[in-house]
Amino acid sequence: MAQEVKYEPVAQIGGGAYGTVYKARDRVSGQFVALKSVRVQTNQDGLPLSTVREVALLKRLEQFDHPNVVKLMDVCATPRTDQETKVTLVFEHVDQDLKTYLEKAPAPGLPAHSIRDLMKQLVSGLAFLHSHRVVHRDLKPENILVTSKGQVKLADFGLARMYSCHMALTPVVVTLWYRSPEVLLQSTYATPVDIWSTGCIFAEMFRRKPLFCGESEADQLGKIFEVTGLPSEEEWPADVTLKRHNFSPRSPRPITDYVPEICDLGEDLLKKMLTFNPLKRISALNALEHSYLMED
Amino acid sequence: MAQTGFCDSKALLDLHKKERRVPLRTWANSCLPKERCPPAESMERWEMVPKAEQDSKWVRVPLSAEEGIILDYAQMNTTHADGPKEEAMLRCLHGLQDLRILVPSLLRHEMELAMDKLGLIYDRTYAWDIFSDMMRSQLRDTFPSADLPNPFTENTRAILVDWLIQVHEVFHFSEESLYLAVHLLNRCLRQIKVSVASLQLLGVVCLFVAGKKEECLLPEVSELCYLMENAYTKHQLLRMERRVLCGLKFNLSHCPPLHFLLLSASIARCSNKMVWMARYLLELSLLEGQCVMFLPVQLAGAALRLARLVLQEPSTPESEAAWCISSTIHVGSEATLLKIMQILAVAAARARTRETRATYIKFSTADTMCVSHHPALKGAPCLLGLTSMQT
Ligand SMILES: Nc1ncnc2c1ncn2[C@@H]1O[C@H](COP(=O)(O)OP(=O)(O)O)[C@@H](O)[C@H]1O
Ligand SMILES: [Mg+2]
Predict the structure, then answer these.
(1) Distances (CA, A) of B305 to B144, B328, B331, B364
(2) What gap in Å lies between CA A129 and CA A171, rounded to an integer?
(3) N or C: which end of chain A has fewer CB within 10 A?
(4) Which residues bind ATP (chain A) (predicted)?
């Protein structure tokens, strides 16, 4: 059914990379939904890759009904003119994204137990994705939704993809601030990139502002090394253009300088997530068993 | 004493001895450190088909619901009449009495290594989860029957697939994209109404959509039209894309049989030649309408077994052991495997003289070790036919 007939628009939520997201009401059930539309010029390349992947991945994951992944309810294609078609993804509506949630949190910020709870859900959503060979690749507060009851739902699978043999070549356009060192260095990357982003988001939950705000790839790496210290020569990937000697030597600074409110266990987990070497970075499954997340 | 160390392909094909499974004890023995093996255990013994083997009852015991769909392994009955010697040997095996515990963990370990090697995983923590997921999700990839709606015939489908194999090569797409494209085509042919006139368009769109899911570099729509000698406009192509995506409700997931093949081959330590041969046979399955009824893991298993049978490479205790570990992956009944092997053997024997020769040509190059030219392929159906006539 045409989307205009079925859903009544209520408000604009966000301007996305490929179109706008609207809050709308299902005229029959009265339920709120989020509509993410893409305009497809019928004379170019057809449906954008990101939409094909987003829908295909969510379709594959939906059968598992994971509580921490946003639900895709429907996909509608509406021809608008002869030259243009609109494809709309219909999602369950979630009250806000994590960015808004953090902004709205009254001073002095989120209580420690809420952060732990959000992290638990975030990591378990991630463990679910990773054990189904899906790498999200664009985790950031805007792409993490939080319901009014505090339930976390991972969203925006436009860059996500199934992990397979020829991944390393794909360029990514993930927001700079949450990009892992291996992506910044254009080395091979995989599931650990999501863990890095999660680490950045973890710190941001305490700080209520991003941890590393670089202005370019090199600047972003510099900001990272200010905190983690310059990695050793052995840790530096061999096949990359940016060399270690391009950066000034630094020793690590205590992460608590940046995230003073964090507890000892939280600090330990954060450090394990912000490990330079992706092979040594903690996995989502192991993070779930970390004492910080096991505590109640 | 029963010598159970065999995994000879011929014996594996001898399917009519009821439900014989790949003997677990085989590799259990060969996994023992060399010096523990009785000196009499020579190569010839490995090739023997032991009598006791045929009487033993191999039953599949799922460890749990989860592992039931994954593991095919025999129950270890330690009181079995295999003699005290074997029992003693088994006990040596890290002191583990119950092999039911050992099999999965060995396969798990091997699977982790194989997935890592193939680049299917990054983090070994997820290896088993991902493999279980592959085994589970492939269950949705089969069709109840090979019949195609009118007016399509198996032959028209084969001609189209053959052409897609060539187009796929032109664009240097990955093998995953090819298997996905043909799978999407199989579904579209059954789910959306298309005329014979737009069949080629449908094929190209399936490849295009598969590329959107799998590839980093996509051809321009105009290039695709050009390949079809501009018989269709860009507009028509993109309208077909929409029809395909909506018709399939955007369900584009598919577990390519190639992944199962490469995993099994890696665990079984197959030679390069055997892997190429199996890949060739597996790709031939794309042209066979009947193959849509089988699970990807079965197609892969059958291709690998047939490759092994055709090549008859000399075996070593180590290679037998590796083969047997890989054979603990559950691929269904022996009868089904034999059926697929027969289809593939006939296809391979006919490949050279058929109209649809893209795969034959693709696998005739030095890069692919010229496997499609292998002389034994001509006699492959005979090899299978003979054994199947025994009962
Ligand atoms: N299901 C939803 N419920 C509520 N808000 C949503 C939903 N999906 C997305 N949004 C909002 O819309 C924004 C853009 O959506 P997103 O899926 O991230 O698209 P893009 O790929 O354009 O970034 C998000 O940051 C979020 O604020
Ligand atoms: Mg987004």
Answers:
(1) 24, 13, 12, 20
(2) 20
(3) C
(4) 36
Structure-block tokens of residue B221: 């729509």
Q: Is the CB of A54 under 6 A from ligand 1?
A: no
Is the pLDDT assigned to residue B9 strictly greater than 60?
A: no
Residues B199-253 pLDDT 10s = 999 999 999 999 999 888 889 999 999 999 999 999 899 989 999 998 999 999 9
- Do B336 and B249 meet the contact criterion of CB atoms below 8 Å apart? no
Q: Which residues of chain A register pLDDT less than 70? A: 1-3, 15-19, 42-43, 163-173
For ligand 1, atom 11, the nearest C-alpha belongs to A14
Phi, psi of A10 (to 5 degrees): -115, -50
CATH fit for domain A2-92, picks 1.20.58.1190, 3.30.200.20, 1.10.760.10, 1.20.210.10: 3.30.200.20
Q: Give this complex's ipTM.
A: 0.88
Tens digits of residue pLDDT in B371-386: 999 999 999 999 887 4
Angstrom distance (rounded) from CA A119 to CA A98: 11
Does the Cβ of A258 fall within 6 Å of ligand 1? no
Report the SS3 class of residue B339.
helix
Whether A169 has its CB under 8 Å from any CB of chain B: the answer is: yes
User: How do residues B273-314 score in pLDDT, each as one tens digit?
Assistant: 999 999 999 999 999 999 999 999 999 999 999 999 999 999
CA-to-CA separations, B381 to A10, B32, B279, B321, in angstroms, rounded: 66, 37, 18, 27
Nearest atom in ligand 1 to the alpha carbon of residue A92 is: 1
Are residues B130 and A131, on separate chains, in Cβ contact within 8 Å?
Answer: yes
Helix, strand or coil, per DSSP, at residue A91: strand
Taking the mean position of all CA atoms in its chain, how far away is CA A263? 24
Residue A16 CA to ligand 1 center (angstroms) comes to: 7
Asked if B172 has any chain A CB less than 8 Å from its own CB, the reply is: no
The arrangement of strands across the sheet holding A152-154 comes to A96-97, A144-146, A152-154
Closest to B371 measured CA to CA, from B323, B308, B287:
B308
Q: What are the structural domain ranges in chain A?
A: 2-92, 98-294
Convert A152-191 to b/e letters by CB count within 10 Å (16 or more is b). Answer: bbbbbbbbbbbbbeebeeeeeebebbbbbbbbbbbbbbbb
What is the per-residue pLDDT across B117-145, written as a single tens digit (0 to 9) for each?
Answer: 888 887 888 888 889 889 999 999 999 99
Instruction: Please state, as a whole number, how many other Cβ atoms lie within 10 Å of the Cβ of residue B313.
Output: 14
